[in-house]
Design goal:
mainly alpha, single chain, de novo design (two linked rop proteins)
């Protein structure tokens, strides 16, 4: 099996982290520590859990960590929606991040199904 760096879903997750860091620059100064910290942790959790799960060398552990990564993607989407609703970010600001989240979630779910079918 591939190492985590070769996994397209991990690579896309790193791209999402980069996009999130760009978005965080748009938040007002008073939110740079509260909301921004939570958003940053959710985003970084996605590729981190993919990597950790892959490093466990057991498919059932890998699936568990992929599910955690998937949950972090949903958490991130929720936090970005909150930022839109309170006026910190616009729809245009978040379009790329939402597209990446959707793509990553599809990839995670596909990989989870594949691993479960093989196990």
């Amino acid at each position: 099996m591939q190492g985590f760096r070769e996994l397209t879903v991990w690579q896309k997750s790193i791209e999402l982290v980069e996009e999130v860091y760009r978005l965080l620059e748009k938040l007002p100064a008073n939110e740079r520590f509260a909301m921004a910290d939570q958003i940053r942790r959710s985003a970084v959790s996605i590729p981190s859990n993919i990597a950790e799960g892959r490093g466990r060398n057991a498919e059932n552990d890998f699936v568990r960590f992929l599910n955690i990564a998937n949950g972090s993607a949903f958490e991130l989407e929720t936090q970005l929606i909150i930022c839109q609703r309170i006026g910190y970010l616009t729809e245009d600001d978040t379009t790329k991040a939402f597209q990446l989240c959707d793509e990553i979630c599809r990839m995670l779910n596909s990989l989870i199904k594949k691993l479960k079918a093989n196990g």
